[in-house]
Design goal:
Blueprint: H1 3-18, H2 21-32, H3 38-70, H4 76-94, H5 97-118, H6 128-146
Length: 149
């Protein structure tokens, strides 16, 4: 790998792992704080999860647009999933935390499986190990947090 690619990979990896901090922190806080703070922390957790799911859906739109511009052949799955993932996340944040947080965990897992199915064809297969690590921690955090609600 070229030095610039190494630097970019390192930056992306560090930022990605740093993005797990709110998941882990909020999940543990739900187990540690008094009951009157639970609704606020659960909403923060669900909101952050929904933002991340929307971000992951946006990646598919980016892939779809790139394919449409470069080859005029964009698989519709990128655009459909790019809308479905945020819609599912929106449903999850409208639900009570005990139900919405597990749904968000499941959607995060579904996002990984969709990425695993589509990213190699887009030349992004090298990122799937990082994506798996992020998915394990973020989805487990949602499930763990739900147990405290």
């Amino acid at each position: 790998m070229h030095r610039t690619e190494d630097t970019t990979w390192l930056l992306i990896s560090r930022l990605s792992y740093a993005g797990l901090a709110p998941f882990v922190l909020l999940a543990f806080l739900l187990w540690l704080v008094d009951a009157e703070l639970h609704p606020f922390i659960a909403l923060a957790m669900a909101g952050y999860g929904a933002v991340i799911v929307s971000f992951l859906g946006g990646i598919h739109w980016g892939i779809g647009f790139r394919n449409a511009i470069t080859s005029h052949n964009a698989p519709p799955v990128h655009f459909v999933w790019g809308v479905m993932a945020p819609l599912l996340a929106w449903v999850a944040i409208m639900m009570p935390a005990f139900a919405g947080l597990p749904l968000l965990g499941a959607v995060l897992i579904a996002c990984y499986f969709m990425d695993r199915r589509t990213w190699p064809a887009a030349g992004l297969g090298a990122w799937l190990t990082l994506r798996l690590h992020l998915t394990i921690v973020s989805s487990f955090s949602c499930f763990f947090a739900a147990g405290a609600t």
